[in-house]
Amino acid sequence: MYGWIFRRLPGPLWCRILTSALLIAAAVLLLMQFVFPWLNQFNPLNDSTIGGSSQP
Amino acid sequence: MVRMPEHAGPARSVVRTVVQVAGELLVTAGLVLLLFVVWELWWTNIDADNAQQRAVATFVRDASGPVAPVAAPGPASGDHGAPVVAAEVNTPGTVLGVVYIPRFGKDYNRPLVDGTAPEQLNTLGLGRYESSAMPGAVGNFAIAGHRQTHGAVLDAIHTLVPGDRIYVQTRAGYYTYVFRNNEIVLPTQTDVLLPVPTRPGARPTERFLTMTSCNPRFGSAERIIAYSVMEAWRPASAGPPAAIASLVAATRAKGR
Lengths: 56, 256
Prior knowledge:
The complex is a heterodimer of chains A (56) and B (256).
Chain A: H1 2-8, H2 13-39
Chain B: H1 9-62, E1 95-100, E2 109-114, H2 118-124, E3 126-128, E4 139-144, E5 165-170, E6 173-185, E7 207-215, E8 222-235, H3 242-255
Parallel strand pairs in B: 2-3, 4-7
Antiparallel strand pairs in B: 1-2, 1-5, 3-4, 5-6, 6-8, 7-8
């Protein structure tokens, strides 16, 4: 799958390597800024309150 | 080597593609989970530390009074009378003050906010249980903070030694609490938040500070509770206690 994407990227080899690095960076940024903060509410491991049954 | 019969060619290539894509997706999922752990245990601390230091600097900058201790007027030096207790705001997210705990490091200061919902604890660190008393009031002033992640504000809670001072600064002044003991309870044991902790119906005569956090570290099966009792108070006009004066001064200089 990743090989297929890599072969579809335009330009010479160095350009494709650069593009894929940018794509990976964008995916990481998207995860860290938006996906993980949202996912965090379902993490039961960091509730430090007492009687917080309403808080997962 | 397994030799496939000739007629299985196209079908085999489809199976191969499916297996390969599934494998790549599984490897990706594993990497994403690892990245989530990195984000949770490392990045949230950096994020929250920045937000907390900004909140502390703003609060200390706007707080009135000198940043060096001023000798008390009146006959008994150091006696400033009954502590002034701020009115409850009950607006989650409001910064009520700053907490200083020298045992956690000589630079340890964290904002104290109203409310213990994730929105407060995940950014500003120490949250006041809204059902509990205000700092300095007779009864139980109870706060919660993360043991790990989001600033890990109470990571070192188990290192407190009886007699350790915990300083709480509000707009009114500085309250000095003395740590007495801790205990480990189940997350459902809400009586630690009672006006007299774990004593239902008892009338409080002392000013308690109760801190709650996760236990064990990196887990949340239990809660660690640290109890302290108020020892002294200084109005803002008298300046901070000597033990935190230099930190208060440095923080105010940073906020300018």
